[in-house]
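Q: Sequence in, structure out?
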Amino acid sequence: MASDAPGDGAIPADPAGTKPQRSLDRLSWPSLQQAAARPGSTVIWPFGAIEQHGPHLPLGTDALFAERILEAVLDSLPADLPIWRLPLSSIGFSPEHRGFPGTLSLPAETVIAQVMSVGEDLAATGFKRLLLFNAHGGQIALLQVAARQLRASRPSLAVLPCFLWSGPPGLDALVPEPERSQGLHAGLAETSLMLHLAPELVGSERPVDGQLDGEGAGGGQPPPPGWSLEGAVPTAWLTADLSTSGVIGDARGANAQLGEALFDKLVRGWRQLLEGLLGSSWPPGG
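A: Exactly. Output:
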């Protein structure tokens, strides 16, 4: 039987013929093998979480953001670029949100082992880069550890542990202080983005008990002077230390217009970053 893989290694088109098929799980093994053999072949793996996001946002907020933004970015890229995606990893490392119903958290060792196993298989197939496209702030450091461990194990594979909200320029200008630095969870930015992407999933409550400027109405307390939740001198905080609602920030001003502006900045920014990566020879000697 003849192979269904294109003879020149081109990306197979979707059934409608309107865009390239970039999902690895939709390819046959000969097509995947040819994809991996292309110079600069890159796999992007979206990561989310299933965890509480206050009383007004769905448990899968981070997963939805990773999926929707990645799809928009990939759809905007030129069809000839050698980039493919893995299915969304929707359950992540979320121990800080335990104690709130609905939070599901994998052990750190499980997440690292998953990244190592999948990454080693991709490297053995011949792919040159793996980008971890993570939308959950609570697993940034963990995925960085997994990425460094994988790179040490498979030096030929570039591993890039990225955070959805870090990298694209112009986001800070859209979110005013103190929300820009203190709206860590289910605040203005996340609520606005969800109002743009899936408004039917957004509830009407806007609790502010997790504000860190002392205006909260019943949450915890900020860290001691000179210390921070994230940044130069962080603490290993739990959400319950700061908020009874699960919200850390102030979503009262959230709106779909801001969400659309954030979405556009994220998509444009990640497209530029991926085009720069795909046009480079990174990793050195890979």
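The CA atoms of residues 124 and 145 lie 21 Å apart.
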